[in-house]
TrEMBL record:
<dbReference type="InterPro" id="IPR050262">
    <property type="entry name" value="Ribose-5P_isomerase"/>
</dbReference>
<dbReference type="Pfam" id="PF06026">
    <property type="entry name" value="Rib_5-P_isom_A"/>
</dbReference>
<dbReference type="GO" id="GO:0009052">
    <property type="term" value="P:pentose-phosphate shunt, non-oxidative branch"/>
</dbReference>
<dbReference type="InterPro" id="IPR037171">
    <property type="entry name" value="NagB/RpiA_transferase-like"/>
</dbReference>
<protein>
    <recommendedName>
        <fullName>ribose-5-phosphate isomerase</fullName>
        <ecNumber>5.3.1.6</ecNumber>
    </recommendedName>
</protein>
<keyword id="KW-0413">Isomerase</keyword>
<dbReference type="InterPro" id="IPR004788">
    <property type="entry name" value="Ribose5P_isomerase_type_A"/>
</dbReference>
<dbReference type="InterPro" id="IPR020672">
    <property type="entry name" value="Ribose5P_isomerase_typA_subgr"/>
</dbReference>
<comment type="pathway">
    <text>Carbohydrate degradation; pentose phosphate pathway; D-ribose 5-phosphate from D-ribulose 5-phosphate (non-oxidative stage): step 1/1.</text>
</comment>
<comment type="similarity">
    <text>Belongs to the ribose 5-phosphate isomerase family.</text>
</comment>
<dbReference type="GO" id="GO:0004751">
    <property type="term" value="F:ribose-5-phosphate isomerase activity"/>
</dbReference>
């Protein structure tokens, strides 16, 4: 249970039943082992990345890490890191980041990712693209054969005439049986509730595919060519390391 894992480096023991949150924490703690004093560190967003931010703050308090500068990937992470006393900055002041640590919604065998089901894809992509190393932390439920086949592929769009952009996206992926839905704040989603608004004041259109979308890079580039689109949640050729925690232990890919 989580109590065993609170502030010390957790370990996977066969006698304890680990929750999914324990696994997230194990992956996060493992990734933080790569953080060294003096680094500029991209701080991810979500329930997995949250554990990494906690851990960095803990090591700073203990004096085991010094002179870290955190670059938060969302307002939420900014708030968390601020409350924990992690010194913060931004990409304008630190255009090169040593290491970013963040979760993902899906990871394929080539380390292509789907991100943004938490809604922070734009800032995450800006910061993680500017990182020399990008460590992705997941529990094993996030591993997939093909990204985009298992749930929403988020696209951040400008609010102006979002229906036009939503329809353009759906038409673009007609060949893959795409359904494009505006993300709402209401439970269960749909277009009836209020639109979910990103940290950048934009909306999210979630794409659901019935069939394979084919070449991911080509699909991503085609999305970006649509006027009205700001960014998409496919993170291709960005992750340098994936830390996966499962019932049988934690492993690094590539090992
Ligand atoms: C937010 C993200 C998150 O990293 C992703 O949604 C994973 O979140 P969690 O760790 O809570 O499962 O991309 O935009």
């Amino acid at each position: 249970g989580s109590d065993n894992l609170s502030n010390d480096a957790p370990s996977v023991s066969s006698s304890v039943v680990l929750t999914q949150d324990d696994l997230k924490k194990i992956a996060a703690f493992k990734a933080v082992e790569f953080v060294q004093s003096g680094m500029v560190v991209g701080l991810g967003t979500g329930s997995t990345a949250k554990h990494a931010v906690d851990r960095i703050a803990h090591l700073l308090r203990q004096g085991k890490l010094k002179n870290i500068i955190g670059i938060p990937t969302s307002k939420k992470t900014h708030q968390q890191a601020l409350s924990l006393g992690i010194p913060l900055s931004d990409l304008d002041s630190h255009p090169t980041i040593d290491l970013s640590i963040d979760g993902a919604d899906e990871v394929d065998p080539d380390f292509n990712l789907v991100k943004g089901r938490g809604g922070s894809l734009l800032r995450e992509k800006m910061i993680e693209s500017a990182s020399k190393k990008f460590i992705v932390i997941v529990d094993e439920t996030k591993l997939v054969k093909h990204v985009g086949a298992n749930g929403a592929m988020p696209v951040e769009v400008v609010p102006f005439c979002w229906k036009f952009t939503q329809e353009s996206l759906q038409k673009l992926f007609d060949y893959a049986g795409c359904e494009a839905k505006l993300r709402s704040t209401s439970v269960g989603g749909g277009e009836k509730g209020e639109a979910f608004v990103t940290d950048n004041g934009n909306y999210i259109v979630d794409l659901f595919f019935k069939r394979d979308i084919g070449d991911l890079k080509a699909a991503g580039d085609a999305i970006l060519r649509l006027a009205g689109v700001v960014e998409h949640g496919m993170f291709i050729d960005m992750a340098t390391t994936v830390v996966v925690a499962g019932e049988h232990g934690v492993r690094l890919m590539p090992d």
